[in-house]
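User: My advisor, Dr. K., asked me to get a structural model of this assembly before our group meeting. I'm new to this, so sorry if the format is off. These are the inputs:
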Amino acid sequence: MSNPTTTEIVARAQELYEDLNFTAAREWKDAEPGRKVIGYLPVYIPRELIHAAGFLPLGIMGGGDNLEVIHGDAYYQSYICRIPRSTVELGVSGRVDFVDGMLFPSICDVIRNLSGMWKMLFPEVYSKYFDVPQTYKDEVGGTFYIGEMRELLHDLEELAGRKITDDDINASIAAYNENRQLVNELYALRAAVPWQAPASEAYLIIRAGLALPVQKPSVMLRQYIDAAKAEERPMKDNSKVVVTGMFCEQPPLNLIKSLELSGCYVVDDDFMLVSRWLTKDVPTDGDPVYELSQAFLHHSMSTAAKYEPDLAEKGQFLVRSVRETGAEGVIFASTSFCDPALLDRPMLQNVLKDADIPFIAFKYAENSGQMQPIREQAGTFVDSIKLWSAA
Amino acid sequence: MKPSIVKAQPGDVEKDASMIKQKQMMAAHYERLSNAPETGEKVASTFVPGNLNELLMCFDLVNNLPEVNAIQSGLRKKSGQYIMEAERAGHSEDVCTYVKSDIGMMMKGNIGPNGRELPKPDVLLLSYTGCFTFLKWFELLREQYKCPTIFLQTPYMADGKVTPNMIQYMVKQFKETVIPTLEEVSGVKFDIDRLREYLAKSAKAEDDLVYILETGKNKPSPIDAYFGGIYYIGPIFGAFRGTDDAIDYYKFLREEVDQRMLKGLGPVTPDGPMGEEKYRLVVEGPPNYTSFRQFWKMFYEEGATVVASSYTKVGGTYDYGFRHDPDRPLESLAEYCLGVYTNRSLPMRIDMLTDYINEYEADGLLINSIKSCNSFSAGQLLIMREVEKRTGKPAAFIETDLVDPRYFSAANVKNRLESYFQMVEQKRSGKGAAA
Ligand code: SF4
Ligand code: SF4
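Assistant: The format is fine. Below is the predicted structure of the whole assembly, which you can bring to the meeting.
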């Protein structure tokens, strides 16, 4: 069978991305009795544990710009970001009624409070706020995190009606290691030849993967990478940029496309960090929960939702990203009313100033419709980068 | 050096000795802070929820609370310009205004309420309790002050219970990082007996605080548990928990409240004793500080007394039985942090507000939703509906900000309040359904 083309793969991914009834996950669940689906929100959940229970971890990244929010606005004031209200909308409209559990990671007070709201709104569904350490010593934060993971495992065992063994978890770790390697390969490809694998396509491929059992997205990623490498696509006179601030509420696809249309090659980003949160392979031959905790403590991404204990390290992840991808500037795209992103922004901008890296900033919401101002701002930025590098 | 004790004069009891006492305490504290560069006292900045005042005192550190400074800036009508200053420097209009007020104040010379410069902190005790913004706030301060920063994580009480894993995590943090770093910064060796001594004092004052807050159950209530309550919690939520000053303050206050209760009097307002108690309210959410008096007046003019509030629990939920315990010093500090209101899950908050309405025989719930505070505000609309459903009492929602004057619209608030009081009346006369 010949490898599908990028167009075909992207079309399938877009279909999955646009399907707010999560048909693929429903079908997976219905295919065999006893199957369960556990939803999770940004930014990070050890999906390995859910997978090890034989369940499908389903990434719920808000409702995006295709969801009409009818009930959600009755739950949130206008000065709170969009993702919780569209997530509530998904819940009360029955779109996630097949989900057997919901995990709310520790990311900010909005998601934290949403975890309690979910308990009130859907008392019959298992839901859990998943706390993670913000201190990184093995015997302190590490021990706490192991305890939290064990609690989650215990709950998952109850839902599964069986014990989850270390072998189960190690097998899942291997599957997610492979998936992360592929995601990283795609990012590396994007950084090297962004015209072959544009951000808007890569976004869809990775996003679609959050709605499928891990083996399927891995196949999709492999196919896409191969196809993107094989096809000849025109190279444009775009500038390479890194975008940051989109780690929770997702940008509308049009926003990413608008950046591309205005002359940006987005070579790195913080979309859906869950898919590459752990920056190294997790060993598959040890105590798996311990290994997952080690990976979290010592080999995980930086983001605004995480405390940086070392002042000298603050924001350096962004500088490294720029250097490693050969980017020429950074775009701070933050969700409106997002305290984590917006409070972090000035600190990151100071780090960029010191490193002589140009940047711009704007805000968006998952349902932003008007792209013209963003396009203009990004276009001007690209022009100035070009002038700057020519000078 | 131990904190100095300010003595109120005998005979002050009749003329609100507690108020005088508190004024003296606050003034002395700000002077102590301002004098720190000369006296050589070291300063720790930290937060109200998860405030570890007793522990800081063990290291002779002076406690500086940026949240309280922001409140002071709000009350003195300075926060507006500070916030603008911070926004001009690149801070977003969308984020917590306490942070911007603090940063703007810093940019304008860090002048405290005493008109003197506040000292640079020697250490930032980032007690990450009940609010995500704290984490970013102190990262921002660390960037400026470049001083040692201690991170203490309080796990979130999402399932309504404190687990052994949570306590062990916190105690380990105390032992492995918090205490050793405080020793290093201060040069003072940790003495657990000294901590026990302070904790015993805390518990004593806490008993009186609870007694005072619970007098709100009387009819009429001798206290206003929101506008007045903000003053009552000052010493215990701030830099005085564990001191003799706090014990004295609450003793005086208790006597005054007892006297008012005996005489069947209501709360004291800025315009003198309150008239007839017409409405008894439970309030959820912080107040607005930039128009604090005007805001309060809208209540007492209508005969509305707040008999219980959640805001007076942000620095500890003592009325739910918690006391600092000298026999379990570190565990007790951990439990204290875990239990503060903003570290409680939404279902716990709903239970608490429902209990208050029932136990304090209130007419209903009023939510003051703060534009820039996700910790409180996210989920309040559900809280409102749920409490209304459970109690059958009407609830209402108003929107202001803590210290950003741009978000206090007096006319809007007044309108909302007036219709709310009408709703309460209708409910009483059995005419209208809850809105
Ligand atoms: S967008 Fe920001 S504020 Fe909103 S839920 Fe996500 S992290 Fe929290
Ligand atoms: S609790 Fe609210 S007002 Fe206080 S610091 Fe946090 S976000 Fe700001």
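One thing worth pointing out at the meeting: Chain A touches chain B through 58 residues (CB under 8 Å).

User: Perfect, thanks a lot.
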